[in-house]
Amino acid sequence: MVTEIVFETHSWSEDNDLGLATGWLPGRLSARGRALAAELGERRRGDGITAVFTSDLRRATETADIAFGTTGVPILHDWRLRECDYGRFNGMPAAQLHQDKLVYLDEPYPGGESWRQAVARVGGFLDDLPSRWSGQRVLVIGHVATAWALDERINGVRLDDQIGSPFAWREGWEYRLLV
């Protein structure tokens, strides 16, 4: 049986405007982000989505609420869909933080987690998803760690190969999770 997953990143945040790596800080959508979240809802409402799963961080929950809050589609928050925890580096300039990403592939950020730990955390969510949502089409709203976990687990793209490339935003990714 297959679970169809549509992945979208959270909408543009105030921290994105400032060039900050929010990490596990809640963040908040900017005016641009709220408009993009509304566009996400318009784009996906007729797409057969049976449930929306979102990171529990504010910027992601805001995205889900704006896009699907009035539709009756259940919105389920899951902490395992959070971004990598940069620990003491949460909120630092993104350019500075990401110049050392490879260092933190397996070594946790001070007071945080490694990229591999973050991807494994999202993997736990993916392991649980088919138990209730097999044969359905769901939307997942998350972060870079979520995207990397999906690509590694479903498409077989090793995290080691993803971490060195810049993350390129787009309007959704489609995955088929086989059980």
Strand content: 15-25%
User: Overall 3D geometry?
Assistant: globular
Mean pLDDT across the residues is: 96
Question: Order of strands in the sheet with the most strands?
Answer: 4-3-6-1-7
CATH H-level superfamily title: Phosphoglycerate mutase-like
Number of helices: 8
Task: Name the CATH class.
Answer: Alpha Beta
Order of helices and strands: EHEHEHEEHHHEHHE
**Total domain units:** 1
Rg, nearest Å: 15 Å
In CATH, the architecture is: 3-Layer(aba) Sandwich
Distance between the termini: 6 Å
**Could you please say which CATH topology applies here?**
Rossmann fold
Largest sheet: 5 strands, mixed
Low-pLDDT segments: none
> What is the share of helical residues?
25-40%
Please state the structural category.
Answer: alpha/beta
Instruction: Report the count of strand segments.
Output: 7
Can you walk me through this structure?
- The model has no long low-confidence stretch (mean pLDDT 96).
- It is built from 8 helices and 7 strands.
- It has helices spanning 14-18, 31-44, 58-68, 94-98, 115-128, 130-133, 144-155, 159-162, and strands at residues 2-9, 20-21, 51-54, 75-77, 92-93, 137-142, 173-178.
- It is globular.
- The chain has a single domain, classed as Phosphoglycerate mutase-like (Rossmann fold).
- With 179 residues, it is α/β, with parallel strands linked by helices.
Task: Please render the helix and strand layout as text.
Elements: E1 2-9, H1 14-18, E2 20-21, H2 31-44, E3 51-54, H3 58-68, E4 75-77, E5 92-93, H4 94-98, H5 115-128, H6 130-133, E6 137-142, H7 144-155, H8 159-162, E7 173-178
Parallel strand pairs: 1-6, 3-4, 3-6
Antiparallel strand pairs: 1-7, 2-5
Helix pairs in contact: 2-3, 5-7
Binding site for substrate: 22-23, 59, 83-86
Protein name: phosphoglycerate mutase (2,3-diphosphoglycerate-dependent)
GO molecular function: phosphoglycerate mutase activity
